[in-house]
Design goal:
8-stranded mixed beta sheet; disordered C terminus; 10-stranded mixed beta sheet; disordered N terminus; 20 helices; alpha/beta; globular; Endonuclease, Chain A; Methane Monooxygenase Hydroxylase, Chain G, domain 1; polyphosphate kinase like; 4 domains
């Protein structure tokens, strides 16, 4: 769920004053704790709680595969770079190990409770207990026909080299005694990733059995003539980071090779069922060359992420009520003509409440329109079944000039992006991979259309990805405009990425790694000057992560000058709020609920209390992290259209601040405390599911549409 950058570090000579920052890794673990808490939230349907549990497991896997792997590499190489809070890699690994083990223990406790609740609701996950004769016969037949031909037991002895176990691979170790001569034999069975983790037994009542339980159930068929003395399930996680080599001459060839190498990366974590004898664990570590791996004994289910398979059970009564996103009515008013609607006025679309189909419709129309001469598109994550890719291919087939900037460095999507790049190139699309050392993270689409005697450029700027699946569960903003300034800026961005032509001036956009950090610092400084002059100084900012030490220090300076700062940071936050004399005026909250908050929105009061008509408002593809400012191509775009300004500031940001049902407040000691509604309850996600937006309403907009208000000097 979370992207990762190289472990932020500073030299010993510049270790910051202790207590000014929270540790980045521990802050992330706190975020995953909040995700796990949703699995115990009685306000959520049962299978949705199970989904949150699975997500917390997948999050933790990726954390070890990338973040912990990076720290481990530093430790093994003897690199003693410290984190922004002054910890060495070894100190961080020790703290992470203790915190992660506690988190995994809590996951097991939650699973135990959910298992019992699922059983009561008619969804039963069985182990090795006895079942009725008919069910037992079906299980035996299924094992012999669907599992036995695929799995391959392997003896562990000098004649048999230890088999390769892939990342996230599951294995069963068996300690056996041959009945004929009492010879001890040790066997290993790797559970193939091609097989589902859970098998649903036939019948109206939902009964599932895990693959490892099925194999253990029929060891008499797998190992005839042997007695099982002991068995143990284990799972491994491997280093899955890909380091970019600056001298790589062919980025595509390099990534194809690196992806293969990643599958064989160093073992970072070994998870074992509790109760497995220590000599067995030591033997497995030796055979897998995993002595440097962090190991943990699990008292319960190994591989929490796989519980997602159970969520697919057809029980709508145990899931969130299905939600159908709205299609912007402004587009419908123009007969579905996206260009006509955008030409008339800027539009912002709020996903997932408003459909991602409007983005697809925009590109499909461009592909089919004979007056469209060119399309340029960035692709960071596009999913496995992408209508965006199809539209670009159709446009190229129609003879249009199509350029796609495909980011190969999108973590865990590298392989899929290589496949898309190949398909696009075969269709005649000009595919560019961007900078070797920087990721292209900006989400921009531009369409050049012949109109009259000239050309008009239509642009889309997104805070999220061009990904149809995540667009249904991530909250993001899509901004459409035909403003010629935006069109010229977008063209300059594409030229920068494709031809390394650095833009000398931009009319609307601010770009990293060129000057986004500088511009953001200037905006904060302006609020400081307002406060010092006796005018209100106000900053509201919504993002996924806040890590950058220089920006944090600037926010501390603003707080000390009297600027009121409200931050909505879903995930990592290294800033320490509410510390007297340092961050008295900074308040930080995190929203975790049905949808994943993903949009980046920044508002600056401009000498007035927020919200106000004159506030400087921006959307962006960037979080406030070193990687986003220094090692990525990102954009920041001002919102000037009054209706769009109202929607983003008065609706989206205000609603995030008002939420008291799925919000957590960050305390000065680093703990998070769930808000307890006092008085009127307000659920951010429910509000936007049931209230239309402003920008996309067109003539259907009603003056009585309820927009939440804060008593912070709000204009009338």
């Amino acid at each position: 769920m979370a992207e990762a950058d190289p472990v932020p570090s500073i030299s010993d000579a510049s270790i910051p004053e202790p207590g000014r920052y929270f540790n980045r890794e521990l802050s992330w673990l706190n975020f995953n704790q909040r995700v796990l808490e949703e699995a115990s939230n009685p306000a959520h349907p049962l299978l949705e709680r199970l989904r949150f549990l699975s997500i917390s497991g997948n999050n933790l896997d990726e954390f070890f595969m990338v973040r912990v792997a990076g720290l481990k590499e530093q430790q093994l190489q003897g690199v003693e770079l410290r984190s922004v809070d002054g910890l060495t890699p070894a100190q961080q690994l020790e703290a992470i190990g203790a915190r992660a083990d506690a988190l995994m223990a809590e996951q097991q406790s939650v699973w135990h409770d959910l298992w019992a609740a699922l059983r009561s609701a008619g969804i039963n996950v069985i182990g090795t207990e006895q079942v009725d004769g008919k069910a037992e016969a079906w299980l035996r037949e299924h094992f012999m026909e669907q599992v036995f031909p695929i799995i391959t037991p392997q003896a562990l002895d000098p004649a048999h080299p230890f088999p390769f176990i892939p990342n996230k691979g599951l294995g069963l170790f068996f300690d056996l005694v041959r009945e004929s001569d009492k010879q001890v034999v040790q066997e290993l069975v790797i559970l193939p990733a091609t097989l589902p983790r859970f098998i649903r037994m036939p019948g109206r009542t939902a009964r599932y059995i895990a693959m490892e339980s099925l194999v253990r159930r029929f060891t008499d068929l797998l190992f005839p003539g042997f007695i099982v003395r002991e068995s143990g399930l284990f799972r491994i996680l491997r280093d899955s980071d890909i380091e970019i080599e600056e001298e790589a001459e062919d980025l595509v060839r390099y990534y194809r090779s690196a992806i293969k190498q990643r599958r064989r990366g160093r073992i970072i974590r070994l998870e074992m069922e509790r109760g497995v004898a220590e000599p067995v664990e030591n033997m497995l570590q030796t055979l897998m060359q995993g002595h440097e791996a962090m190991s943990v004994d699990i008292d319960g289910f190994v591989g929490i992420t796989d519980l997602a398979e159970l969520v697919e059970e057809d029980r709508p009564d145990l899931k969130f009520t299905a939600y159908v996103p709205r299609f912007p009515e402004r587009i419908r008013e123009y007969g579905g003509d996206c260009f006509a609607a955008i030409k008339a006025k800027d539009i912002i679309v709020h996903h997932p409440y408003e459909s991602f189909d409007v983005v697809i419709a925009f590109l499909k129309q461009a592909a089919a329109d004979p007056d469209v001469v060119a399309i340029k598109q960035t692709l960071y994550r596009a999913g496995k079944q992408s209508a965006i890719i199809r539209a670009l291919i159709d446009a190229a087939d129609a003879g249009k000039s199509v350029t796609a900037i495909v980011e190969l460095k999108a973590r865990f999507d590298e392989e899929q992006n290589l496949l898309w790049a190949s398909q696009l190139e075969r269709a005649g699309v000009q595919v560019v991979y961007g900078f070797i050392e920087w990721k292209t993270h900006a989400k921009i689409s531009m369409v050049v259309r012949r109109e009259g005697t000239g050309f008009r450029t239509y642009c889309h700027f997104g805070t999220g990805n061009y990904h149809p699946v995540t667009a249904r569960i991530y909250t993001d903003l899509s901004f459409f405009t035909a403003d010629p300034r935006a069109g010229r800026d977008a063209a300059a961005v594409f030229n920068y990425i494709t031809g390394y032509v650095e833009p000398k001036s931009m009319e609307l956009l601010t770009l990293s790694p060129l000057n986004l950090r500088q511009r953001l610092t200037e905006l904060i400084d302006a609020e400081i000057e307002h406060a010092r002059a006796g005018r209100p100084g106000n900053i509201w900012a919504k993002m996924n992560s806040l890590v950058d030490a220089a920006i944090i220090e600037k926010l501390y300076a603003a707080s000390n000058a009297g600027v009121k700062i409200e931050l909505i940071v879903r995930g990592i936050c290294c800033l320490r709020p509410g510390v007297p004399g340092m961050s008295d005026n900074i308040h930080v909250k995190s929203v975790v609920g049905r949808f994943l908050e993903h949009s980046r929105i920044w508002a600056f009061g401009n000498g007035k209390a927020l919200p106000n008509n004159d506030a400087k408002l921006f959307i962006s593809s960037a979080d406030w992290m070193p990687r986003n400012f220094d090692r990525r191509v990102e954009y920041m775009l001002p919102i000037e259209n009054p209706t769009v300004h109202d929607q983003v500031l008065d609706q989206v940001l205000v609603a995030n601040l008002l939420d008291n049902e799925q919000s957590w407040v960050l305390n000065a000691d680093g703990s998070y405390e769930r808000l307890k509604p006092e008085g009127k309850r307000f659920n951010l996600h429910h509000y936007f599911m049931t209230n239309p937006s402003l920008s996309g309403r067109g003539a259907a907009r009603r003056k009585d549409v309820a927009v939440p208000k804060l008593s912070l000097g709000k204009r009338g």
